[in-house]
Write a structure and sequence with these properties.
By secondary structure, the chain is α/β, with parallel strands linked by helices. It contains 8 helices and 8 strands; from the N terminus they run βαβαββαββαβαβααα. Strands 1-8-7-6-5-4-3-2 form an 8-stranded parallel β-sheet. The longest helix has 15 residues, at about 150-165. Bound molecules: D-xylitol-5-phosphate and zinc ion.
């Protein structure tokens, strides 16, 4: 069973609250916030004010993805009653161990993300500390990009590593997920699947969420699959 985390970066910001509510009511497990500073990535998105405003909406918990330089300066401003994960980029953290410990000290699950070009071995020393490892399946910075096929092998390798070494971190995949590739991502070992344009693009958020859930919630128990039909 995997979790679905729609990314609001692809939502219509003129009706953000309604769309977050709709995705949550349709069954999304998390709401993914892509925070970009125009330095670590060549795009600027939004800051803590958006999370604070969305606290007024009945929604799934928050999954915060910090694509920013020097995240230590900003982590605390993304801690809210609904923040379940805060993820920083390995490539942006000179003191990654301390940064992850700080997130955990706030009672929040600590995630570390790696770009497509960063090998999973770079995270060896924090695999016991991290609650979640985010494998970027596109270069960070924009929604609507094409999935990078070689990253599927990274997910499989990371899942194998986790099982062999008894680690307990969750694996999140982020970027270019759609209804055609989500099953292979799920089967490769992804526990959390981020989808932005494939959920908020097109005509029905509810339908998009349901189609994703049909593909990532099934287990061997046929009954459960039928219940989702
Ligand atoms: C990219 C972000 C992703 C992206 C996902 O830097 O981290 O979360 O917004 O959007 P899609 O699913 O459209 O690739
Ligand atoms: Zn993201």
């Amino acid at each position: 069973m995997s979790k679905l985390a729609p990314s609001i970066l692809s939502a219509d910001f003129t009706k953000l609250g309604d769309q977050v509510k709709e995705a949550s009511e349709a069954g999304a497990d998390l709401i993914h916030f892509d925070v970009m500073d125009g330095h670590f990535v060549p795009n600027i998105s939004f800051g803590p004010v958006v999370l604070k405003n969305l606290l007024k909406v009945d929604s799934a918990p928050f999954d915060v993805h910090l694509m920013i330089e020097d995240p230590d300066r900003y982590i605390d401003s993304f801690v809210t009653d609904k923040t379940e994960y805060i993820t920083v980029h390995y490539e942006a953290c000179p003191h990654i161990y301390r940064t992850l410990e700080h997130i955990k000290s706030k009672g929040i699950k600590a995630g570390v993300a790696i770009d497509p070009g960063t090998p999973i071995e770079a995270l060896n020393s924090v695999m016991d500390l991290a609650d979640m490892i985010l494998v970027m399946t596109v270069e960070p910075g924009f929604g609507g990009q094409k999935f990078i096929p070689m990253t599927l092998k990274k997910v499989q390798k990371l899942a194998g590593y986790r099982n062999r070494h008894g680690h307990s971190f969750e694996i999140e995949v982020d970027g270019g997920a759609n209804l055609d590739n989500v099953t292979s991502l799920y089967e490769a070992g992804a526990d959390i699947i981020v989808a932005g344009s494939a959920v908020f693009g097109g005509d029905s958020i509810t339908e998009n969420v349901h189609e994703f859930l049909k593909r990532i919630k099934y287990s061997v128990d046929e009954k459960q699959i039928n219940n989702l039909k």
